[in-house]
## 1
Amino acid sequence: MKKTITKLYFALIVISCFAFMGTIEMNRSHYLPTASLEASSFLRSSGSPGSSTGSPGDEFVDCTDCHSNSPGNFGLNASITTNIPATGYVLGETYTINVMTSSSGASGWGFELTAEKAGGTKVGVYDVTGASGAPKIITSGGSVTHSNETFSSWSFSWTAPGVDEGDITFYAAALAANGSGTGGDQVVTTSEVVSPSTLSLEETNRLTFDFFPNPIRDYVTIKLPDALSTGRVEVFDFSGKLVKASEINSIDKKLNLEALATGMYILRVTSNGKTDFKKIIKE
C-alpha cells in the first residue's frame, strides 16, 4: 500500500512539474522584451520606437536595446553631413541633414537621428516633405527615423531654433540587419556638432523694423521701413518651433497672437532679402 501511495505521489509531482514548465513556456512572452518577439524586418519596417540615438537626452540608449550588436558582421559605418556652412547655423534657417551608411552583406538598414543642445534638450524642427530614403518624423517630433528597410541613406530638412542655443549636436544610431530575427545585426552611433553663425546680422543684411506692443495680449503690429511695403512675419517658441506665420503689407500690418500660450517667443521679420529677430512676451 505504501509503495502504491509513493508511486502515485511521485507521478503527481512529475505531472505538476511538466504543467509548471508548460505554463512558463506559454507565458514566456510576457517577460521577454517586445523586440525579442518580433522579426527584425518588422522592426526595421516600422522604424525606431524613439529615444534610441545614443544621445544624452536619450540617456545614451541606442538600437542595441532591440538588436544584438555583432561588430564587424557588415563593416557598418555611418556619418552625418549637413549643408550648414562653416560659419555656423543661422537662427530660424532651414538646412538639409543627411544620414549615410556603408556596409557589406546586410539585407536591411535603419536609423534614428536627433538634435540636442547642451544638457540634452532637443532643438529644431524637422520636415520630411520631399525627403529621400523615406524617413518619417517620430510622433513626439524630437527625432527622425526610417519607414522601411530598403534604403541605406536618408535626407530631410531641419530648421534651426529661432534663438541662439549655442552649439547643437546631431546624434544618430544606424543599423545594418541580417533579416533573421534581432540577433546578428550591427549598430553604430555617430554625431556631428554645429555652432551658431559667426556672422553678425549686419553682415547678413539686418532688417530694421519696429513692433508694438510688447508684452502682447492679442495683436502685434509690425512697422517696416518706409521703403518696404511687404514682408513675412514668423513667430518661434524657444524650442525653435514655428508657431505662427503671416504675410504683412503697408495696410495689413497686424499679426494675431491671441491663441498663443503665455510666455516668451522669437519674432522674425523678413523683407526684401533682409531679416531680423526680436524677443517678444505674450501675456
## 2
Amino acid sequence: MDVTIIPPKTISLLTTYKCSAVCKNCCFGCNPRIREQLSVDEMKSYIDKSLSAYRSTLKVLVLTGGECMLLGNKIYEIIKHGKENGLLVRIVTNGYWAKSYRIAFNKLQKLKNAGLYEINFSTGDDHLEWVPYDNIVNGCMASVDLGLTCIVNVEKHDKSIFKVERFFKDERLKSYLFPTNNEKPNLKIESGVWIKFNKESEITYKDLIVYNDNSKGCTTLFNTISINPYSQMLACCGLTSEYIIPLRLGSVKESEIKHLYESQFQDFLKIWLFIEGPMSILKFIYEKRKVQYGFITGHICNICSEIFKERENIEILQLHYKEAMARVLLKYSLYAKSICLT
C-alpha cells in the first residue's frame, strides 16, 4: 500500500518488567524476580536512532516499566540524555520510593536536576496492596513544590474500593489541586478505565463508559516508538502487546527503528484500527459471523484484544477486509495529509 507515513511524537522505553509490586492484574506480569532490563547504552542508542530518523517530530521521552525507578542511578543518566537532546522527559512510577515527603522531595529534586519534566503516579486497588496511599500524596506534594507536572492515574472498575475522590477530599492536597492564585494546577488526578488481563471473573464493566463510538480510532497507534525490555518494538502503548502478537513489530537489534516503525503502514488492519477503532472492526466481524452482539464496555484495549482472541475473527478479516478497504484508506489519506500539513 502506498500511504502517507505519520511520524511519531513520543519515544516510550519500557525499561524493565521488574517491579516492586506484584499486582494481580498487571498488564505485563511484572514482579520483583524479573531481571531483564534495557542497559544504559541500549536506551541511549534507541533514543539517538529514533531522533536520527524523526528529530523534527519527536517531542517526548517516557520512561516506564515495570517500575523504572528500580533502575537506580541509571535513570538520571537517561533523563539527562533525553533532556540534552531536546525531549520533554516523563517517568511513570508506582511511587514505592516516596515513603515520606522528605524522601520524595530529595529524590525528585535529583530527577528534576537531571532534566525531568513530568511524573505520572499509578495507583488503585491493586497498587495499594503494595504501595500506601500516603506515598502517592508525598510524591504529589513534592513534585508540585519542585515545579514538576504531576499526574495521578487511578484505575477504575465497578467494584473499585479506592476512588479518585479521596485525593480531592485530602486536606493536604487542597492547595495543590485548587491553587488560590488562579493559576492552572500542576497536579491532575485522573480516573483510568481498568483493563482486564486475567480471569478475575468477579470484576465486571457494568459502571464503565460504554465504548460505542464507531468513529473513535486508536490514538496510540502511529504515535509512539515503544520498545520493551527485550528490545522489541511495539505498535502501540503496549498494554496488550504481550497478548497480541501482531502488535510486536520486531527486534530493534535486528532491524532499523525507522524500518520497523514504518512497516506498520503496510498493515491494513493497523490502519483500520487507527482510523475507525476496534469497535467498528468487531462489529464488522460479528455481522459477517452472524453473531448477535450488544455494546462491549471497558477499555479500548480490551475491545482490541477481542478481535484477536478467536482465530475465526482473523479468518473473517482475511476473507472480507477488502469490503472496507476503500472507505478506510480514503479516511486515512485525508487524515494523514491534514496532520502532515500542520
## 3
Amino acid sequence: MGIMVNSKKESIIEEIIFEADEFRLKGYLHLPPVTTPPFVIGCHGLFSDKNSPKQIELAQHCNRLNMAYFRFDHRGCGESKASFEAVTSLDARCADLKAAANMLKARDDLGDQMGLFGSSMGGSVCLAVAGDLAADAVVTWAAPIRSADLVRPHADPAAGPDIPFKKSLFDISKPLASLSNILIFHSEADETVPLPHAEEIYERVSEPKKLVVFSLSDHRMSQPVHQQAFVREASFWFQACLKPDIK
C-alpha cells in the first residue's frame, strides 16, 4: 500500500490491494481533504482497466466536490493478475465490486453514503448489485441490459467491441425495478450496445432517474468533449444524491 499526494487539488491517492474470492485486486482511492466523505466506486468495461481517462477525470471532479472515488482493476485486468478469459464473467465482476464495497465500508475515514459508476459491462455490474449494496446513487455509461442481444465480431480484444463474452450470458432486467437515483448515459450512435438498452433501463428503474443521450459519441466515449460533459453531469448527480459536506 502506498500514498501519493496531489498538492494542486489537495487530494490523497492511496494504493490499495484487496481480495475478492481468491484473487488479489488492485485499485486507487482518491481522498479529498475532508473528514469521512461519501465515496463512489468505479467499474471499468470488459477490456478496459482502472486507468481509463473518464474514470480518472471523474475521480478528480468528485474530489473537488468533497467525495472520495475508488477505481480498481477487476480480476484478470490491468494490475489484478489472472487469466482474463478464465475468470471473466458478470458474476465474477459482481463479486469484485461487492468485495471493494465491503472493504471501503469497513474504513473509518469514509462516510456511509456510496455511489457506483460503471462503463459498458461495468454499468451492468453496478446495476446488478446496487440493490444488494444499498447504493445511494448509480451512474452508467453504455450499459447493456442483456448480453444475448450483443455480438462480438472480432477475436482481437483491442479491435473488438467492449461487450461480454457469449459464454457468460446475463440479463440484469429483474433487479432494476427496485432501483432509483439512476443517471444513464448512452449514445444513439453506439453500434456495440444499441440505445434501446438505455431506454429499457430508464423505463424499468424508479424515480429519481435521468437519461442523457449523446448524438455522436462512440461506445468508448473517446472524444474529450463528450467526456467533459459526462464528468460534469455525473459528478453533480453524485453530489446531489450523496450530499457531501461542502463547508
